[in-house]
Design brief:
alpha/beta, Purple Acid Phosphatase, chain A, domain 2, 3 domains, 6-stranded mixed sheet, 12 helices, 19 strands, 21% strand
Length: 392
């Protein structure tokens, strides 16, 4: 069986003040043409079809147009789950009717994981969930963490799985096999640091599946074994993704054999890039040719340039921001120096410095004398208390 795995379409996404809808239309239309050439048995979209729970009319129209071409014109069986950005209710609307046409959507969580047989494979659809979504199905089980919720919810399906068929899981969230953290780090798998403060779920039970198609993380990466993968998003949706290579995955599955995973990239109409240089260098067309890409600028000038963004937008019309990187470093160095200086000051000098900073005046001598006397009395009281404690 051949399938295409993609995720995190985020239709309707804005990058700063720029709508990416036209960029998305261009990419998805080329994606449809590539699907026509690949002719997969199935397409998997692992969550976050839309960028907002209430998508715009234009976003819904584009999504409908693309899915209609894939399902109705190309006849590719398509499996979609809800991600954390999707509205479960809106995504599930009309799903029973669409299923007859070959579009399978799992928005709501049901009493058991949705299982859809298709040809020689069973597709298991696990939409984005939180612990409280599962507790109502297990009222007598003390479920506290997300990992416990997912384990309880998926266990019956794992126990009943027909191992003679190709079993495919589609899920959305932070997953990683955590049986051996050291080997996971060495092989480029996910780590706690890579998922920030969100709860990470052990994907080791998912090794029972022949392939696991994940969504939620926007970079392509393996999350465990040889069969648990994030496809990443099709386009760059933030400056943090500027250096990521975007792709979708073409997966060939044969029972009893490891999955064959290949990546394909479709270059975007406009890339997301970071350019670094001085204002003069960036304004020089010989050094930096003008571009329609979405550009974030790192200016190396030691001082701010008046109306820099206005001038630079003449060369980079889709400039989405700038930062003076040297000024940041200089300010950090000055702050560190100031902290070290303050640590060396005695309490009275420190207070006098604070008084001067807040009032723009010098601390009166009478106040300085009063402060010195008060500090001396406090120190004497502390010494006396310590002496009494030792004598006890």
């Amino acid at each position: 069986m051949k399938l295409v795995h993609t995720a995190d379409w985020h239709i309707g996404k804005n990058l700063n003040d720029y709508s990416l809808l036209e960029d998305q239309r261009d990419w998805f239309l080329r994606f449809v043409r590539r699907l026509e050439e690949i002719r997969p048995d199935a397409l998997v979209i692992a969550g976050d079809l839309y960028d907002r729970s209430v998508p715009s009319r234009e976003a819904v129209s584009l999504c409908s147009e693309i899915l209609s071409q894939i399902v109705l014109e190309l006849g590719i069986e398509t499996f979609v789950i809800a991600g954390n950005h999707d509205s479960r209710e809106r995504l599930s609307f009309g799903s029973s009717l669409l299923e007859k046409e070959g579009l399978h959507i799992a928005g709501h969580l049901k009493e058991s994981i949705t299982k859809i047989p298709f040809r020689e494979a069973d597709f298991y659809l696990l939409p984005y969930l939180e612990a409280h979504d599962v507790r109502r199905f297990f009222p007598d089980v003390p479920i506290r963490r997300l990992e416990e919720a997912i384990n309880h919810y998926t266990k019956p399906s794992l126990e009943k799985m027909d191992k003679s068929r190709i079993n495919i899981l589609i899920a959305h969230g932070f997953f990683s096999c955590m049986e051996n953290r050291e080997s996971s780090a060495e092989n480029g798998l996910l780590s706690d640091a890579q998922v920030g403060g969100s709860e990470q779920v052990n994907a080791a039970p998912f090794l029972e599946f022949d392939y696991v198609a994940l969504g939620h993380l926007h970079s392509r990466r393996r999350a465990g074994g040889r069969q648990i993968w994030y496809s990443g998003s099709p386009l760059k949706y933030s400056i943090d993704e500027a250096h990521q290579e975007k792709s979708f995955q073409v997966v060939e599955l044969e029972k009893g054999m490891p999955p064959s995973v290949a990546w394909e990239s479709l270059p975007p109409a406009r890339d997301v890039r970071i350019l670094e240089g001085s204002f003069e260098e960036l304004m020089d067309p010989n050094q930096y040719p003008g571009s329609e890409d979405y550009i974030f600028l790192h200016l190396t000038d030691p001082a701010a340039i008046l109306n820099a963004i206005s001038h630079l937008k003449g060369r980079f019309p889709n400039c989405i921001g700038l930062k003076y990187i040297n000024q940041t470093a200089v300010r950090a160095k000055e702050l560190l120096s100031r902290k070290l200086q303050l640590r060396k000051m005695d309490p009275i000098s420190l207070f006098a410095d604070f008084y001067r900073h807040t009032t723009q005046e010098e601390l009166p001598e009478s106040d300085s004398a009063y402060l010195a006397e008060t500090l001396a009395q406090s120190e004497a009281a502390v010494d006396l208390a310590e002496e009494r404690r030792v004598l006890r």
